Amino acid sequence: MIRVNKVRAGYGDGPDILQGIDLTASGGEIVTILGPNGCGKSTLLKCIAGFVRPRGGAVEMEGRDVSAVPVHEKVKNHRMGFVPQTDNVFSTLTVADNILLGARHLPVAERNERYAELMAQYPSLASKQERKASALSGGERQILSLARALISNPKVLLLDEPSAGLSPLMMHEVFAAIAEIRDRTGMCIVMVEQNAFEALGVADRAYVLSLGKVAIEGRAADLLADPAMRHLYLGGEPPAAEGKPRFAAV
Hints:
Blueprint: E1 2-9, E2 18-25, E3 30-34, H1 41-49, E4 56-61, E5 64-65, H2 71-77, E6 80-83, H3 95-101, H4 108-121, H5 123-126, H6 138-150, E7 156-160, H7 168-185, E8 188-192, H8 196-202, E9 205-210, E10 213-219, H9 220-225, H10 227-233, E11 248-249
Parallel strand pairs: 3-8, 3-9, 6-7, 7-8
Antiparallel strand pairs: 1-2, 1-4, 4-5, 9-10, 10-11
């Protein structure tokens, strides 16, 4: 579904932040991108989305090179949904208006049908359709931003730090909602996250970036369980049991 091939990218006249990144993500899986601040996680997601054009390499969706396709065209023509980290809802608009903004390019009948489906899937939003987004909790606003991205029925969903600013309880609910989207729709989901333990708990595969390169990649469950991974990248001490590392160092 998504293939990133040897991508280099940066901003303005600055140096390359991404230095030859490779990544793949398929339908029916969550791929999470992890790493310390400044390693290039958000830049990689912005390259995939179309906010940043690669300086080298290519981004493909369903076998087509979309490296130069801007984000609005990917949303419309390549069925991509994108949820930014901040400012991801319009506080002065109602819940209903926020969601419907994500479907402006759809025919009215299809837009209304998708809206009704989302209200059935997210009853907490359905009960607050006419409330302004500013009245929602942080977790509810994040679910609202997901609903707005989903109304266009995307094949690909890109999430930039979906747990940012949330309490542990709300963070758990948001990650559960993301996993439910994958299980129900078979969507391809690529997620940048700082909360590595939570992200690996719902992801199928993960890439760990370091200084603009892929340092480690592998199955999320293996990375979560591996002592070296926990010690080096997850901020935890290795467990007592020793074993051969099961991640793929790149």
